[in-house]
Amino acid sequence: MQAPTDTKPRWERRKDARPQELLEAALEQFVERGYAATRLEDVARRAGVSKGTLYLYFENKEELFKAVVRATIVEAIGQAEVDLAASAAHSSELLHALLMRWWETVGATKLAGITKLMMTEAGNFPELAQFYNDEVIARGNALIVRTLERGVARGEFRPLDPLVMMPVLTAPVLMLMMWKSAFLPCEDAREIDTAAYMAAFLDLALRGLRPDAAAPVLPQN
Question: Which residue in 7, 29, 34, 110 is deepest, having the highest Cβ count within 10 Å?
C-alpha cells in the first residue's frame, strides 16, 4: 500500500515544519534575487505563510539570511571539523575529501549562489560580510590550514607554509563555483566538465604536496 502523502496546505502543517520551509524559501529567494532585492513578504509567500508568521521565527532579513547560512554552509563546516579531529586517515585523503565535500555540498548546489551573493554585495552590507567572514570563510580556511599542518607534521606533505598554500587550494574551487553560477547561464559560455575539472585540480594539488615531489625548475632572474 502506498504511504499517504501530506496534501495539507503549508499553513495547516505542524508548526515545527515552518522554520525549515521558511529557510528553504529564503535560500531560493536570496540566490535568485540577491540580498538587497529579497523582500520578506516574497519569502513568506514562497513558503506559503503570512509575513506575520515569518516574523514569529526571524526578527528581520539579516537574521533570516544568517539562519540560512548557519543551517547549510556552517553546518557542513562543523561536520568537517568533527571528521578531521576524529580521523586517522592519510592527510592527502582528508584534504581530498574536504575539498570534494566543499564542492559537492556548496559549489555544485544552489548554495554556490550564496557565495556569489557575498562576493557581489558584501561591500554594501559590512555587518553581514563580517558575519560571513567569521562563520564561513575564517572557519573554512582554518580547516584547510589544520589539514595542511597535520600533513606536514606527519611527514605526509612536503614542508610548506600552510597559510600560503591555503588560498592556492581554495582559489580553483571558488573559480569553478563562479564559472558555474555566473558564467554558464550565458548562451556564449562554454560548458565545463566540473567532475573532470575537480579531478584534474586535486590530482595536481595532491601530487605537488607529496613529500617526494621533485622541486620545480624555476626561471633565473
Answer: 29
Which element (helix H / strand E) includes 175? helix 162-178
Q: What is the pTM of this model?
A: 0.84
Classified by CATH at the fold level, domain 13-58 comes out as: Arc Repressor Mutant, subunit A (1.10.10)
* Residue range 133-151, pLDDT digits in tens: 999 999 999 999 999 999 9
**Domain 61-208 indexed as CATH 1.10.357:** yes
Of 12-16, 87-91, 104-108, 185-189, give the lowest mean pLDDT range.
12-16
The C-alpha atoms of residue 194 and residue 176 are separated, in whole angstroms, by 8
Q: How far apart are CA 84 and CA 143, in angstroms?
A: 8
The domain segmentation of the chain, as residue ranges, is 13-58, 61-208
For residue 140, which amino acid is it?
Answer: G
- Residue pair 158/211 in contact (Cβ under 8 Å)? The answer is yes
Task: Tell me the per-residue pLDDT of 57-66, one tens digit each, with 9 for 90 and over.
Answer: 999 999 999 9
